[in-house]
Amino acid sequence: MRGGALPRHIFLLVLCAKQLDLVACFDPLLSQDVPVISGYVKERFTEESSKCDICVFNGSSIRDDVVPSLTKAVTRLWSSEVSDAISTVLEDHSNTCGEWSNILRDTGELTADSTDCFDLRDWLSWQCCNGMPSLSECQATVKRTRLSDDTQQMIIPITKGSLLEVKMSLHISESSIVNYGVDGGAVEVTGSLLLSWVDERLKWNSLEEGCSSVIVQESDIWVPKLVKQDANEATDTLEVSKIDVLADGRIFWTREVRMRARCNTSNEKNFQRSSRVCMVDFVDNEDNGLVRYVTGDARKVIHIDDDASIPQYTLDENQTTIVANTSATRDNVIQKVQLQLFFEPLDN
Length: 348
Known about the structure:
By secondary structure, this protein is of the alpha+beta class. The protein has 11 helices and 15 strands. 28% of the residues lie in helices and 29% in strands.
């Protein structure tokens, strides 16, 4: 215990309550003539149990000196609105598991039931904790119990009559000019497209099962039907990829992409040295308007590598954005998403 020594009977009570059940631990002690002030004990228990611990699986313990390697769970933290304190620490890859344990417990805004704590446990627990169950067995159990009803899992996960929100983000790693046409030409963009949503049907208790996430195929569950509009097999690819399903129902689908973007130029007389806005159109015409694509603040959902600009141009991160809209026909509702890339000449 930290924060000052506790009387032995109180320490044992808090330890019992963390491992078993609060009421079950209180009853035997409070029914005897033990010098315990229940209010104080409950306060200390609440304080301790609300902290973000790495090793919460029953019987697990911290491996102090191990340095955890980076996994996909870390990329979720980097792309989320994680606290400044955690964001800064994530940049230091030399922290040991013991140091991470202290950081998590000492970060006041990081509580045990927070999403950031969940993602940190998903990243750290299998590398930092002794006494964990077999990961393969846990994943097999989750898939058997949550993905057994194939028909049900392929239905869009809408609850309470509301639209399903699918969040989008994009990582741009490379771009190149493929056409200098006077109408603006075209550029080719390479990177990854991340779609995330929540499916309440796929939740499980990670503390009981022992794992916080499993990897599934896109044929195992319902996935958004967003595709590139007027895609050309020779120039546009959306790679088939596996999907991360988390115990809290969140789903993350990352697809490697290569896309041809058509461009408009601001100066047709000097089209090789003018500003360009290049657009990639995506469309979902299969979900009948039941999905709402959420693009959010472009500065948070579009990540551009430093070397992603093309020669003589810079990819303007402040203007580049993603825009979503809905259109309707007599027979269908169509969701459209447009990626707008702004290239500025370096001498402007």
